[in-house]
Amino acid sequence: MQGYNVNVNVKQHIKQFLLSIGCMLLVINNANALEALATVSDNPVSVNQVFELTISVDGDVDTDSLDLSALRQHFQVGSPNVSSQSQWINGDFSQNVVWKVALAAKEVGTWTIPSLDLGKVKTNPIEVKVEKGTSSSSKRLDVDLQDQLEKDSLFVGESTRYQLAIFIGENMQQANLSPPTADGVDVVQVGEDQRKDVVRNGKRYVIISRTYELTPQKDGDILLKGSTLSGNVIKQGRRFGSSVSLPVERKTSDILLSVKPVPADFTGVWLPTPDLKISQRWQPETDKIKAGEPLTRFITLRIKNINQSRFPNIKLKYPDTVRVYDEKPVYSDQDGYTVMTLKQVIIPRREGNVTLPGLTVKWWDTVNEASRESNIAPINLTIQPGETQNTPVLPDSLGAKTNEIAPPITEKTITVTDAGFWPYLTALFAFLWLVTLIVAWRELVKRQPSTTSQASYESDLLTELTRTVQLGDPIQIQRAYRHWQSAYNEHPMMAEIKAEIDAMNMSLYSKNKSAGERTNDWSNKALMSMLARASKMKVSSKSAESLATLVPTVSK
């Protein structure tokens, strides 16, 4: 019985051993069964032609084990797409892993896709022949850069326009456009980039336009190095989903600039340009204005191919009989011309004839290579008397309002010729005294509406002044202030309001500031508060006071 048990144990150990050997053989067989196959969709290929590398493994491998860094020396490499599939067929388990990668060759030659290590297995190497691209074998990246220079022969300080146009028919990313460069030439971009979509031969293109202004600072032959466009184009194969980023670079040709020096016999400010125009206008368009009323003068200077920084500093010497307030020049770009507009507010001080100075600008005609002069004529004005203190002038909105002035009392002298009729004479004087009382009472009643009208007149003037202060226009404020001052010069708050008006003028048009500078640091809050207090006061104007003596008074 004991021998029987020993035989059973031996048989069990033998079975376990044979089972272990079988498992080991199965694992070895599966390991030997792992197979990796690498193929390409096209061979040969052209430079920048996108083709597909497919790697297929039958077996269990890590999907993150693929390392493509060895391909980057000769190929542009896209992001791989990976798929895995597992199956049970009749009790047999199988697994398949596939990578698809978009590639594009960088240059002509014969290049090898090396064996790629996937951990448990390696792929087979592939030799790829790369040929020069042709219209039939490869489609060129549809990105183009074109340039146009306005002129390549110019004078020192003269500007010219350099225009660039980018034609993009691809999915382009990270695009960068560098400006042209040259030693001794200032390069400044003009305006913003312009973009538009066009359709050519049924295909949509994006066109981006950019303009540079070139200004040489020295004479001689100068080499202008062209602009460079760089970026990446995303390409995707027709038969697969993987895409690849292809670098693209386009460059315009270099251009030789011929720069002429300043003529030795030229004097004055150097303004080289093919065209210069100067003009003026003024508002109101009349040669007769009143003292104290503003005249606005606009001087416009249009110069072709001259940068704003090279414009002349216009300074005109005006007579002492006028005050002049300059505003900062305004610049704009119009059809290749740089345009400067200078605005001046001119206020005559007193009546008489005055001549506003003209202006002459000397410049160099680069087309005919000759010195030229452009000018605007002086302006002759007749200054009429302004508003007087005793004759207030109402704003237009108050023109329909008038004061109602009571007619003066006509005094009658009665001569008594018959002194013998004392009773009758006494009765007559009593009657006349009674009439006088009645007339005085009636005149007092008539005077009351006039006072109301006068108060309304003052209120209208203050309302107009308050409105202009709220708007903040210094010229209109001064005009409304003069109207109110001329009628109510003895107002208790006149000194305070006048001081604030003077403060406004000093802030807006300070003589200590540089020419053309105008500040706006004055606040109307203090003046508005003063006007609010003034409106609550009952004050008679000088005109009303001069009429008060004509109103009869009744003594008790």
Mean pLDDT: 77
Gyration radius from CA atoms, angstroms: 49 Å
How many structural domains does the protein architecture include? 4
Give the uncertain stretches in residue-range form: 25-32, 135-139, 389-419, 448-454, 511-518, 541-556
Fraction in helix: 10-25%
Helix and strand composition category: alpha+beta
Overall 3D shape: elongated
Our estimate of the beta-strand percent is 35-45%
Largest sheet: 5 strands, antiparallel
Number of helices: 6
Distance separating the two termini: 167 Å
| Number of DSSP strand runs | 29
Keywords:
556 residues; alpha+beta; Immunoglobulin-like; five-stranded antiparallel beta sheet; 6 helices; 29 strands; 23% helix; 38% strand; signal; transmembrane
Describe the structure.
The chain is of the alpha+beta class and 556 residues long. It folds into 4 domains: 35-131, Immunoglobulin-like, CATH 2.60.40; 143-260, Immunoglobulin-like; 272-384, Immunoglobulin-like, CATH 2.60.40; 421-548, no CATH class. Helix content is 23%, strand content 38%. The chain has helices at residues 2-33, 422-471, 474-487, 494-508, 525-535, 542-548; strands at residues 35-40, 45-46, 50-58, 75-77, 81-89, 92-105, 109-113, 126-131, 143-149, 153-155, 160-168, 172-178, 185-200, 203-216, 220-224, 228-236, 243-251, 255-260, 272-273, 276-283, 288-290, 295-304, 322-326, 330-334, 337-348, 352-356, 359-365, 370-376, 379-384. Strand 16 (228-236) and strand 17 form a beta hairpin. Helix 2 (422-471) runs antiparallel to helix 5 (525-535) and helix 3 (474-487) packs antiparallel against helix 4 (494-508). The longest helix is centred in the last third of the chain and has 50 residues, at 422-471. It is elongated, with a radius of gyration of 49 Å. Keywords: Membrane, Signal, Transmembrane, Transmembrane helix.
